[in-house]
Inverse folding.
């Protein structure tokens, strides 16, 4: 029960690793606020956590919209009295999400804007919204989801550069937060089996990660066992980003 009495806000909690991490945090005692643009998904997931004996609520938040972010943080404090953990999972490759096959320079600008807004601007805005409460508590952890493609570079330019930005955001939050007891870490996965297509992506180990392999690392970084770790990026990519191919 590493997270007994800790309150966690999760973005992109409607599916994939955000959903799994929410369930695992609740199993270890956290009160979890699941947020996603997909309200039905987070309401169903939160109800499942409550049925299993945990504490959780589901809220609709589009991370591109500061009013919705602020309302969710206010509701979290009103319901559970603190915000100890924020995990910025919401994101995805814009051309995949928008079902586009053109190269980057031919993509409609709206698609590129979606990529930058969800993958980078949202985490900056959400971090801004929780910092005041975390500073008041003198405690907090913010985990940002990068990607191996933010480490190596990729033809998915808006996605890869936004994910590189997550490493920068993490460093800045670590510098900003240290004197207030706030840590921040970036986790940059290689392919993860949150959807079948990821099994076809190359890694040096010849396989993609199970979602739980990544969420275990994230929960460790959220825990007090990682009390001296801040500002760092943690690749978890089956050695995809190292060596010469
Ligand atoms: N799956 C992988 O192989 C992989 C690899 C590297 C990095 N990542 C990163 O990890 C994170 C989670 O990946 P996943 O595969 O578990 O995700 P996923 O695609 O299963 O879930 C993403 C969630 O984000 C939500 N979302 C989309 N737009 C949103 C918005 N505007 N506001 C709020 N929520 C929104 C979706 O509804 C969805 O529930 C993402 O940031 C992704 O880029 C994933």
């Amino acid at each position: 029960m590493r997270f007994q009495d800790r309150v966690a806000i999760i973005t992109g909690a409607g599916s994939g690793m955000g959903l799994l991490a929410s369930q695992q945090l609740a199993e270890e005692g956290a009160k979890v606020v699941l947020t996603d643009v997909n309200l039905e998904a987070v309401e169903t997931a939160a109800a499942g956590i409550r049925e299993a004996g945990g504490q959780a609520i589901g809220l609709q938040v589009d991370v591109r919209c500061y009013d919705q972010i602020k309302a969710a943080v206010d509701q979290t404090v009103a319901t559970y009295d603190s915000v100890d953990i924020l995990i910025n999972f919401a994101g995805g490759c814009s051309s995949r999400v928008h079902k586009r096959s053109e190269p980057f320079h031919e993509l409609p600008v709206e698609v590129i804007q979606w990529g930058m807004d969800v993958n980078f601007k949202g985490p900056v805005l959400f971090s801004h919204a929780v910092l005041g409460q975390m500073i008041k508590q003198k405690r907090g952890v913010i985990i940002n989801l990068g990607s191996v493609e933010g480490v190596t570079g990729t033809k998915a330019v808006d996605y890869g550069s936004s994910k590189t930005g997550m490493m920068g955001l993490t460093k800045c939050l670590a510098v900003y937060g240290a004197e207030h007891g706030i840590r921040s870490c970036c986790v940059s996965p290689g392919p993860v089996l949150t959807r079948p297509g990821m099994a076809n992506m190359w890694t040096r180990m010849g396989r993609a990660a199970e979602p739980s392999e990544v969420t275990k690392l994230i929960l460790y970084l959220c825990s007090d066992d990682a009390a001296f770790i801040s500002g760092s990026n943690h690749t978890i990519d089956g050695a995809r980003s190292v060596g010469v191919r």
